[in-house]
Amino acid sequence: xxxxxxxxxxxxALPYALSGRSLIITSQTGTGKTLCYLLPLLNRxxxxxxxxxxxxxxxxxxxxxxxxxxxxEFKSYKPELRTTLxxxxxxxxxxxxxxxxxxxxxxxxxxxxxxxLIKNRTINRNINMLVxxxxxxxxxxxxxxxxxxxxxxxxxxxxxxxxxxxxTHYSLAQHLRHYLGNTKVITTSQSIWSNESITHNxxxxxxxxxxxxTLCGLLKNISPYMxxxxxxxKNIANDLYEKLLNRNINVALLHxxxxxxxRKNIYRDLNKGNYQYLVATDLAARGLDINGADxxxxxxxxxxxxxxxxxxxxxxxxxxxxxxxxxxENGIDNRIIRLTRKQIQWNYLFLDxxxxxxxxxxxxxxxxxxxxxxxxxxxxxxxxxxxxxKVRPGYKKKIRNQIHKIKQHxxxxxxxxxxxxxxxxxxxxxxxxxxxxxxxxH
Length: 442
Prior knowledge:
- The protein contains 15 helices and 15 strands.
- It is α/β, with parallel strands linked by helices.
- Strand 3 (83-86), helix 4 (92-101) and strand 4 (106-110) form a beta-alpha-beta unit.
- The longest helix is centred in the C-terminal third of the chain and has 47 residues, at 395-441.
- It is globular and about 115 Å long.
């Protein structure tokens, strides 16, 4: 591994991290946050001591493999470096025996497996550095209880704690303050929504119902080295994959229902350049570094705006330029407007009858939100506040469902009120008409 120059986040974070300071590092995807903790960790290793000195915790097996492979690149400089990857679907007893017989200096693993091995003291509790990578994903996936246990069990007096995240929100900030205490925050971006390395394009055609036709028209106009096409659901991804295969397009498929071995093989083949296209759900949008991905296509926009940023973060990495396309569909106008207000600047590309892409503004239709009274807003805020304090798996979905029920109830009340008003108005008109007819007869 050769570094010709440091990225902005590395310039800001490395001096503090190398001095042993605990940090919260927040920066956009693809800016080099991983090296902000790997280099200080490697620098602190004592190769004369046969014990675990650093633990890196990640939310998924794929991300753990990615970081472990990065560490292996340093073995050519220091053959004594020993690392162990701890993930599920591996024999835990075999992992324990391997660690006890030949302790590595660094453990990279998923949160549940790391916690199990700390509890049974296979991982010693006097480590030098504990890293939480993709911390926002750890919290959002409901691993806060496990993370809290890890911090309680690892009680080294000289423990350096580093948390890395591409995004921040209130719940995450509260948890990090609890875990890490008064820790220095390093960030290089005023806004997670701004990335000068990426161009945003919205692609549409005269037939806005034919998304697949628009996608095929776009693919004929571009020639990517490696393109990731994101679908909102696994069913859409499966359907899209089958349709592209039928058109003899060199494409792979990636979503959570694939086995661990299948996903591992796909990542390997992608990084070898065996596929030009990948159809994926948002499983692949968090932190994963797929070599050479220069184009990202969103087959429709996700409901949560932040997922769009995670998607496009698969391109434009490490200072390279990237291009993002979004295939327009009816009903996403408000999402486009929301992203525009968050500093996303769109190029509007129209696919004409000849199949050419031309610049042509799209007139967006704003769907006005339902206006709620103060009492209803208070109920919604109470639900958000109560559920955010005790984060469990699926808590965001639970909050959305509860808010949806409240809004639906208010909508029904509004409709009933309108109907009653119309009936009353009709009765008044009928009564006046009857009186008028009666007076005419007399």
